Amino acid sequence: MRTPSLTVRLSLLFALSTTALLVGLGWTLERAVAAHFRALDREDLSGKLALVQRLLGTTETRSALKKRLEDIVIGHPDMVLWVRTAEGELIFERRAGLLPSNTFEPGEAAPPSRAAGDPPRWLQWRRGPYGFRGVLVELPLGPRGGESAWVAMGIDIGHHQRFMASLRHVLGLSVALTAVAAAGLGWGAVRMGLRPLRRVTSHVATLDASRLDARLPEAGVPVEIKVLVDDFNNMLARLEESFRRLSDFSADVAHELRTPLSNLTLQTQVALGAVREPEQYREILYSSLEEYERLARMINDMLFLAQADHGLLRPGTTVVDLADEARALFEYFEAWAEERGVGLELAGEAQTCGDPSMLRRALSNLLTNAIRHTEAGRSVRIELGHERDAVCVRVENPGPDIPPEQLSRLFDRFYRADPARTRHSEGGGLGLAIVRSIAQAHGGTARASSQGGLTRFELRLGRADRETSAGT
């Protein structure tokens, strides 16, 4: 089933709302006119009833009373009048056959369910095509009192009823025509109101992966749609950045893989180019093994970063003594550092909660990077400390200052601040990116600074005592 368009739904809603309002207005008008006619009829009947009451109370004889009642009804052809005594004597009647059938039953002295002294009973009835409104009341009879008479009086209200029928017809026709007009006008108004949304939709239809730098225009956009446009533009900006990073990452991966694969291909071609001694084949295989190990490390690092990007890293809550981890790494890198003439220094104590292997990997990457870029005769220093509710780990090494435009990219994947080392260093360009991912997985941050001949990498992690108290 096809879903109605927003234009159709809003147009129908507008038409239904207008129709409901007009129906309510018409009903109120019809009730008001009917009440007005009812008040006019009662006022007319009350005036005539007062005249009949005066005649009943002042006339001596029945014949004189009948004559005076005839004078009243002359000139009022639409009037119905019936007067009889409480004992059942008929005094006067005019068009009495048009009275309601239950006004008097044959042989009854008084109307059913009526007692002397009751207030007037207002009636409305129909006889054939005629409609009447009347009153039934008991009035004193004769100047001396002691007697009473029942008076039934009515007037023809057919002209009022015809007017009301005509009014209802006009109101119904007006409501129907207005509903149709409201639907048409609503459709046009909605079409005009949704024009900015159609422009936005047509602009969105032109976007694809090759035009993620385009943005939806905000000029002339209503406030209600501007929020949507802003959110969509922000989403495009995020997509553009994600695609850019993915494209750069793919290019970097291809570039990084090309070197070891080219080396492996070249070594294999050299080995197959001539018959060689077993020792030469062994050297070629060792060289190939190094390239394979480099590829394996790179793939493992990329897998680790992919898990971090998808939030799959789940650090534990083990209390980790960072000083012990640093001393263990010093022992591991001691031979390499001595070979390069680089000293290792540790200052401070600190503990945090997390995954020991991941934190050890982050420290190892920072320490490897620092040793690699420190000149002989200088020292790499690790400082541990606390600042407010965080643990600070600083790894410092002396060396040339890194330009600010490069500092912001040090933690990007496959980025190296020294292009000369790009393809000849032992690292794959993912070490610092892994450090940042590990810090973020532990709810911390990683940043770098370089000035005054000193480059510093700083990790901020949660304190062990704060984590423990939060867990309890």
UniProtKB/TrEMBL annotation:
Q: Which GO terms describe its molecular function?
A: ATP binding; phosphorelay sensor kinase activity
What does the UniProt entry say about where the protein is found? Cell inner membrane
Membrane-crossing ranges are 170-190
- PROSITE patterns for this protein: HAMP, HIS_KIN
Q: Which GO terms describe its cellular component?
A: plasma membrane
Q: Identify the keywords attached in UniProt to this record, alphabetized.
A: ATP-binding, Cell inner membrane, Cell membrane, Kinase, Membrane, Nucleotide-binding, Phosphoprotein, Transferase, Transmembrane, Transmembrane helix, Two-component regulatory system
Catalytic activity, reaction form: ATP + protein L-histidine = ADP + protein N-phospho-L-histidine
Q: Which E.C. number(s) belong to this protein? A: 2.7.13.3
Residue ranges of the Histidine kinase domain?
Answer: 252-465
Task: Check the record and name the InterPro entries matching this protein.
Answer: CusS-like_sensor, CztS_silS_copS, HAMP_dom, HATPase_C_sf, HATPase_dom, His_kinase_dom, HisK_dim/P_dom, HisK_dim/P_sf
Where does the record place the HAMP domain?
Answer: 191-244
Q: What does this protein do?
A: Member of a two-component regulatory system.
UniProt-recorded name of the protein: Sensor protein
Q: Which organism is it from?
A: Marichromatium gracile
Taxonomic lineage of this organism?
Bacteria, Pseudomonadati, Pseudomonadota, Gammaproteobacteria, Chromatiales
